[in-house]
Amino acid sequence: MKIVVTGSLGNISKPLTGILVKAGHEVTVVSSNKNKVKEIESLGAKASIGSVTDVKFLTETFKGADAVYTMVPPNFAAADMKGFIAGVVKNYAEAIKAAGVKKVVNLSSIGAHLTSGAGPITGLQLGENHLNALENVSVIHLRPGYFYFNLYSNIGLVKNMGIIGSNISGDTSMVMAHPSDIAEAAARELQSSFNGKKAEYVVSDERTAKDIARVLGEAIGKPGLPWVAFTDEQAYSGMIQAGLPGEPAKNYVEMGSAMNKRVVWEDYLQHKPSGVGKIKLEDFAKEFARAYNA
After folding, report:
1. Which of 8, 42, 10, 247 is nearest to 147 (CA)?
2. Long-range contacts of range 149-155, CB-CB < 8 Å, 24 or more positions apart?
3. By three-state DSSP, how is residue 43 classified?
């Protein structure tokens, strides 16, 4: 198969590319960074350098592809985060239609059933709508849980204040996913035969926020590390102090609030997948410890 992977060599796209190349597929990786060409080629893939805001570029890249993996790259400089996310997926949809692609695996998020009030997840929900409007194109929306690696943003807090936390209560059950498990799911679906439009949840583990603090604390030699639930205002202020611009900070606070209210998990709890990923919290804790001690 000829498969196009967007997302350059990110946490999901890189392992996904490796899996697909090893399986014998002809893979093209979309990146905005020309300095990534050699690394992409070293994986056995072809590089296509351009912007996801350029529909003409995307159309030319997608032509002849049997399947496309779509994801929205982060853009903390966007004046409207939700609008940027939805806009990129709209670009993908236009290019997919123009190029005649018939199979799409789209990276969305748990909580994408929500039409408002979920921060960046709301942008992904709008993006799902753009792809669902395509006629005669089969689309699977991968809805992974909260990314483990988002917890890396707490390293400074742990080192400077001896706590970990967010605007989520310690008793909140967190549904989480590891990039490698998401890559495995994306590869499986890209190589499968499916028709129509559907959403598929990708989950590695479910643990309370307090449990996350305990496991990560033990991994870094800080047993008893407390999870602290901040107010929305405190969470926003902390993100700003850490250097995050106001627009993404506002959206991440909104997302955290939606998680704290448990509404992000509602659809997932009604449609739990039969299987879960391989990487449990204790496995990720080893990665967290390496990053913490780096």
Report:
1. 10
2. 149/11, 149/179, 151/212, 151/216, 151/284, 151/288, 152/288, 152/291, 153/242, 155/291, 155/292
3. coil
Tokens standing for residue 21? 């190349």
What are the tens digits of pLDDT across the range 57-87?
999 999 999 999 999 999 999 999 999 999 9
Q: Say if residues 94 and 52 touch (Cβ distance below 8 Å).
A: no
Q: What DSSP string runs through 101-165?
A: --EEEEE--TTTT-SSSSTHHHHHHHHHHHHHT-TT-EEEEEEE-EEGGGGGGGHHHHHHHS-EE
Facing residues of 4 across strands? Answer: 28, 68
> Nearest to residue 226, comparing CAs of 238, 215, 213, 235?
213
* DSSP structure string for 57-77: HHHHHHTT-SEEEE-PPP-TT
The whole-model pTM stands at 0.96
Cα distances (Å, whole numbers) of residue 124 to 84, 193, 219, 221, 281: 10, 24, 33, 37, 25
Taking the C-alpha atoms of residue 185 and residue 265, their distance in angstroms, rounded to an integer, is 19
Note whether 238 and 157 are within 8 A (CB).
yes
Complete domains list, the chain, with CATH = 2-147+176-202 (3.40.50.720)
Give the number of other CB atoms < 10 A from CB of residue 88.
Answer: 24
Span 7-28, pLDDT tens digits: 999 999 999 999 999 999 999 9
